[in-house]
């Protein structure tokens, strides 16, 4: 990595730091129905945490009604370095009425600009900087340089690069013409984003294919010196590799080999037999992220027909569901691109409809081998309802064919998916998005889940997902305990950081199962939970007693549950109890609405199908108190299903959105009573 000597860091200190100035301004905000939450600690890590902090603050201050508020969370706080200097835009999130929040924030502190991104965006706070008549910043002004690079486009995955003016291009070349020293980035963001301004200078030029051979050579030498023996850690490699490939230089292949799987897409942008061989080697070595690039390059060099190319590559593909899903995704992209070429004037809604229909059609397309049709059946699972809905609104042969495609899909789906399941190594949010599919379990589902629990190759996240489903539906037994006991001390008794899941730590679930079965291991597991260390387990220990907030209530909850009392009524009894935070109780009340599949998410997820249905159940359960049903109504009103339906995952049909609006409108009198 390289930096330009002389580029100032403009680090603030004491009273002059950005953080100090912004906090001083922030403390002066408030009034007229608007509250500025205190600056964050690490406990306010997400937007959901911010909304929970607001609810807690309002309760403590006795604020009733729908107050408006603004805050930033710990992820946004990373915009400051350790000295308090602002290194990027500070995103200010909010809740309540957007106009009230905008008025409460005002123009921002002196010396800073506040950007209002509208009712569906966050506010952005950044420094005010100066430029010359050509729009160029002082090279020593770090904030000005950053803003300039953001404006012209200096990020590979950003918007398409616009042409540079003559002064802009000369300014960038000048930045790379001075003394270059190899350094590894330091500071609080180095571990996650070690990209210097000089890397961005190079990227801005190479996005326009303007990096010179001399510049590429000098940058490569600096990167090799800074990251000797570990070039894969170099985040500034792209402009250098792309320039070397574009210039046809041998050093490109040495650099690509040292970078591992990262440059797969870049190799595909420069197709050649050598690139194809390198991509094939990456896929065979287990790098599924290179599958799409391999497919693109193969089509360019050998077989433009996407179906024939898919058959050829599937024969060589490793026996991994994730690899097959990646290849299927590449085929879908290719088919969709062909459709877009044939329909250049299609709007976004029509394009989405065509994409959904493509996923459905591929499931029964005999031009694809069976492994890819299985992957297509899984990908189309939540798309077929959209296909039917849109076809029902249309007329003519295309609508009839779409309905026929949906019929064909549903006729073969269960057979194709029998004994299969999701990728258990994917990020938690993707698994959470399909959690609602498992509110009932088929015999094939149970068999697959049991096989995954018994498989020594299943990781902790996969065990947590599968065991929770089996246990919640009463399908876990001695076999699961027997399979996991050899692994619990070395693997399961470890901290498992989970933020966005609907399931518990797997050792919690295993402990509950062992107790239910009266298994001899239950005593040993409970003894482990009772020990004071490790400290991370202490908040989870109570979940082995169904999540009560203290030992007394744990015993009481356990007594009620085992005696047959519905969990909803157990949670309801805690309303108004001292020491029970309302927003936590609301989460518990709604989360246990379906005892066959409780939700263990750390907060009510407004974009989840499961939380929406359970909020409805709480609101409509006649045996609950008015206070409990009001909690369900509040969660339903705040859910994205009616406010921001495009953010709900999997995506909703129009019929589902209309039904949600109708459900809320039918209960408008209860909403007004709240």
Walk me through what this model shows.
- The chain is mainly alpha-helical and 674 residues long.
- It is built from 34 helices and seven strands.
- A hairpin with a 7-residue loop joins strand 5 (112-115) and strand 6.
- Helix 6 crosses helix 7 and helix 16 crosses helix 17 (370-379).
- The longest helix has 22 residues, at 321-342.
- The radius of gyration is 28 Å and the shape is globular.
- 36% of the residues are buried.
The outline comes out as globular
Radius of gyration: 28 Å
- Work out the number of β strands: 7
Separation of the first and last Cα atoms: 58 Å
Report the sheet-strand fraction: under 5%
Helix count? 34
Lateral arrangement of strands in the main beta sheet: 2-3-4-6-5
Helix content: 40-55%
How would a textbook summarize the main sheet? 5 strands, mixed
Low-confidence stretches: 1-14, 182-194, 546-550
Mean pLDDT: 87
Structural class: mainly alpha
Task: Quickly describe the structure.
By secondary structure, this protein is mostly helical. The strands form two sheets. It has a five-stranded mixed β-sheet with strand order 2-3-4-6-5, with helices on both faces. Strands 1-7 form a two-stranded antiparallel sheet. The longest helix has 22 residues, at 321-342.
């Amino acid at each position: 990595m390289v930096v330009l000597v002389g580029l100032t860091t403009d680090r603030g200190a004491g009273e002059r730091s950005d953080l100090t100035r912004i906090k001083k301004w922030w403390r002066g905000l408030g009034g007229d129905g608007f509250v500025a939450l205190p600056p964050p600690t690490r406990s306010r890590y997400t937007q959901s945490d911010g909304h929970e902090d607001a609810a807690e603050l309002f309760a403590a201050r006795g604020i009733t009604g729908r107050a408006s508020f603004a805050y930033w969370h710990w992820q946004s706080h990373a915009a400051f370095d350790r000295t308090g200097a602002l290194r990027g835009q500070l995103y200010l999130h909010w809740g309540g009425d957007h106009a009230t929040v905008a008025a409460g924030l005002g123009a921002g502190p002196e010396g800073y600009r506040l950007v209002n991104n509208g009712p569906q965006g966050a506010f952005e706070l950044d420094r005010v900087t100066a430029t010359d008549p050509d729009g160029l910043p002082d090279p020593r002004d770090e904030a000005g340089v950053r803003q300039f690079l953001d404006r012209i486009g200096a990020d590979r995955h950003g918007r398409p690069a616009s042409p540079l003016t003559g002064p802009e291009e000369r300014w960038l070349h000048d930045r790379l013409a001075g003394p270059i020293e190899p350094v590894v980035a330091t500071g609080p963001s180095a571990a996650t984003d070690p990209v210097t301004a000089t890397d961005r200078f190079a990227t801005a030029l190479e996005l326009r294919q303007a990096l010179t051979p001399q510049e590429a050579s000098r940058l490569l030498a600096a990167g090799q010196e800074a990251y000797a023996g570990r070039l894969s850690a170099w985040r500034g490699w792209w402009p250098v590799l792309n320039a070397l490939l574009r210039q046809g230089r041998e050093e490109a292949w040495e650099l690509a080999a040292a970078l591992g799987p990262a440059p797969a897409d870049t190799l595909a942008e420069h197709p050649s037999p050598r690139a194809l061989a390198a991509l094939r080697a990456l896929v065979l070595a287990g790098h599924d992220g290179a599958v799409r690039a391999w497919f693109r390059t193969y089509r360019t060099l050998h077989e433009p027909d996407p179906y024939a190319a898919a058959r050829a590559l599937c024969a060589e593909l490793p026996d991994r569901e994730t690899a097959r899903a990646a290849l299927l995704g590449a085929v879908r992209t290719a088919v969709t691109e062909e459709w877009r070429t044939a329909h250049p004037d299609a709007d976004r809604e029509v394009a989405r409809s065509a994409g959904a229909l493509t996923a459905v059609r591929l499931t029964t397309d005999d031009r694809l081998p069976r492994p890819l049709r299985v992957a297509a059946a899984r990908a189309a699972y939540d798309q077929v309802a959209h296909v039917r809905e849109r076809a029902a609104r249309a007329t003519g042969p295309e609508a009839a064919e779409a309905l026929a495609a949906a019929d064909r899909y549903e006729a073969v789906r269960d057979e194709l998916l029998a004994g299969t399941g999701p990728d258990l190594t994917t990020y938690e949010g993707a698994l959470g998005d399909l959690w609602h599919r498992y509110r009932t379990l088929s015999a094939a589902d149970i068999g697959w889940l049991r096989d995954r629990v018994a498989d020594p190759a299943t990781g902790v996240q996969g065990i947590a997902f599968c065991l929770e489903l089996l246990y919640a539906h009463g399908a876990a037994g001695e076999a699961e305990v027997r399979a996991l006991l050899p692994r619990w001390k070395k693997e399961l008794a470890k901290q498992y950081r989970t933020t966005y899941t609907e399931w518990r730590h797997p050792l919690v679930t295993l402990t509950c199962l062992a107790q239910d079965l009266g298994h001899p291991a239950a005593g040993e597991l409970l003894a482990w939970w009772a020990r004071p260390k490790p400290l991370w387990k202490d908040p989870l220990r109570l979940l082995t007693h169904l999540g009560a907030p203290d030992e007394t209530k744990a015993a009481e909850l356990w007594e009620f549950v085992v005696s047959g009392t519905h969990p909803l009524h157990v949670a309801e009894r805690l309303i108004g109890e001292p020491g029970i935070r309302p927003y936590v109780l609301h989460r518990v009340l709604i989360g246990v609405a379906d005892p066959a599949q409780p939700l263990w998410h750390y907060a009510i997820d407004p974009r989840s199908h499961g939380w929406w249905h359970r909020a409805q159940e709480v609101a409509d359960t006649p045996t609950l108190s008015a206070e409990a049903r009001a909690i369900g109504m509040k969660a339903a009103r705040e859910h994205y299903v009616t406010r921001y339906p495009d953010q709900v995952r999997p995506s909703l049909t129009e019929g589902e959105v209309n039904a949600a609006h109708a459900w809320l409108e039918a209960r408008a009198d209860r909403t007004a009573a709240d």
